[in-house]
Amino acid sequence: MSTNATVEKIVSLCKRRGFVFQSSEIYGGIGGFWDYGPLGVELKNNIKRAWWKAVVQERDDMVGLDAAIVMNPTVWKASGHLDTFADPMVDCKECKRRFRADELAHQAPASAHGHAAEAPVVRCPECGGELTEPRMFNLMFRTYVGPVEDDASVAYLRPETAQGMFVNFSNVLQTTRKKLPFGMAQIGKAFRNEITPGNFIFRDREFEQMEIEYFVKPGTDEEWHQHWVEERHRWYLNLGLSPERLRVRRLDREELAHYAKDTYEVEYLFPMGWSELEGIANRTDFDLGRHAEFAGRVLEYFDEETGEHVVPYVIEPSSGVDRLFMAFLMDSYDEEEVRNETRAILRLHKDLAPTKVAVLPLSRNEQLVPPAREVWALLRPHWMTQFDDAQSIGRRYRRQDEVGTPYCVTVDFDTLTDQAVTIRERDSMEQVRVPIANLVAALREKLEG
Ligand code: GAP
After folding, report:
1. Helix, strand, coil % over all residues of the chain, rounded to 5
2. Distance (Å, whole) CA 318 – CA 265
3. Residue 162: DSSP 8-state
């Protein structure tokens, strides 16, 4: 992250250029919910695609899943969420604001997994008023399934995608005939009624997770835990996050969730401090054991080599798309002086950039626009592209720099005679002339080579 990036600048850029909007903004919004605009949805899709490619497509031991958001409520009894997925909440008796007691005490884990922190004697940070005693507040959103709203029809929006993978363990094992170790990956929405959503899209009430449940033989779990910590750390570095702003931290005992034997976090240095992007937990056989108990099913793996039935241990790398979105934006944002002007630029990795190529006629001259549109049509089947002919060429380059477009293709008067165009590179601003006949191949080499 350049020292120029502030949360305020990123929020403003996101709104101005169509990355992120407040949900239902025309009605005053709703706290903890966000909409992703035309560029935001591209960046989000690219983050998810890069993750899926690395953890499913390129591996021979992983398969995908897309489970339902609403599940049988017993799932949440078995997982422990009904009993322990709660944060301690306090209210200010004066201004009526609501806070997480553990955050006020500066001992906040980033997520709620039943840390029943005692409220220390502190005052309201807003008005200095007296606070209530802490009450535990379950973060799961409740709903009713079917037309009758009674206790029998209560269901929950999932607070993590993980449980969909545990309850499908036998289905996936039988249909894929995978051998241990193997894993499942899932991307999907999760919902938590956070007491204090905030820091832009860092802590939301509706967000998207990318989770892996990797099943291993008991006894090999610690080795596989290290494997996944290294894999996942490398993934962030490969996508260009600054090494000095990325760290892996092993959690202290008292920070561990109720199901975890050991957990590492991949953390990013945001302006508000080191914060979790991903947790990589050793969940042991906790979840399969609990679901076997509550469902009355055998959730085991038969090891043909030893003739033994085992309940696999699970390594779980679990990350949030929205947090990664914010980290990639903050990290890639830069400002530099070019010809006495400040150039704002997103130095996003090419794989993540929402638009790969922008086609720009030098001006709106009637001789230039038709061939420029032809060049645009040539590129559209291959990549996400934009066409822009409004205002000066310098301004249009700046507009593309600001949203991270790696290449601009300019059609000028020479194009009319030499059938060539100029490719301008975002970071170096270097320009090369390329025949239109070679343009797709040249861009492919640059973007995918
Ligand atoms: N299945 C394990 C699990 O859900 P978690 O640490 O609670 O673990 C995993 O969440 C990831 O999900 C976090 O590292 C974070 O990236 C993302 N996440 C969790 N709560 C979030 C929230 N309220 N808003 C945005 N992302 C969140």
Report:
1. 35, 30, 35
2. 9
3. H
Q: What is the pLDDT of residues 49-78, one digit of tens each?
A: 999 999 999 999 999 999 999 999 999 999
Closest C-alpha residue for ligand 1 atom 25: 203
Per-residue confidence (pLDDT) for residue 109, from 0 to 100? 42
Cα–Cα distance measured from residue 256 to residue 371, given in angstroms and rounded to the nearest whole number: 61
The tens digit of pLDDT for each residue in 292-345 reads: 999 999 999 999 999 999 999 999 999 999 999 999 999 999 999 998 889 999
Is there a contact between 4 and 334 (Cβ–Cβ < 8 Å)? Answer: yes
Contact 94, 130 (CB under 8 A): yes
Q: What is the largest CA-CA distance in the chain?
A: 78
Q: Residue 174's CB: how many other CB atoms inside 10 A?
A: 9
276 lines ligand 1 (CB under 6 A): yes
Cβ atoms of 18 and 40 closer than 8 Å: yes
- Three-class SS of residue 445? helix
- In the reported structure, the alpha carbon of residue 336 is separated from the centroid of ligand 1 by a whole-number distance in angstroms of 34
Name the E strands within 292-438: 301-303, 308-310, 313-320, 333-338, 341-346, 357-361, 385-387, 407-411, 420-425, 431-435
For residue 279 and ligand 1, the question of a CB distance below 6 A is answered with yes
Tokens 């170096």, residue located: 428
User: Are 163 and 214 in contact, with CB atoms under 8 Å apart?
Assistant: no
Residues 6+ apart with CB under 8 A from 166: 79, 213, 287, 288, 291, 299, 314
- CB count in 10 Å sphere of residue 195: 21
182 lines ligand 1 (CB under 6 A): no
Q: How far, in Å, CA of 73 to CA of 159, rounded?
A: 12
29-47 per-position pLDDT tens digit: 999 999 999 999 999 999 9
User: Nearest residue CA, atom 5 of ligand 1?
Assistant: 111
CA-nearest residue for atom 16, ligand 1, is: 320
CA of 69 to the centre of ligand 1 (A): 15
Nearest CA to ligand 1 atom 20: 111
Beta strands in 234-291 (DSSP E): 246-250, 262-270, 273-284
Residue type, 225: H
Residue 213 Cβ < 6 Å to ligand 1: no
Structure-token pair, residue 373: 């549109």
Q: Which sign, positive or negative, has the C-alpha torsion 299, 305, 308, 311? A: negative
Residue 436 DSSP class: G
pTM of the model: 0.94
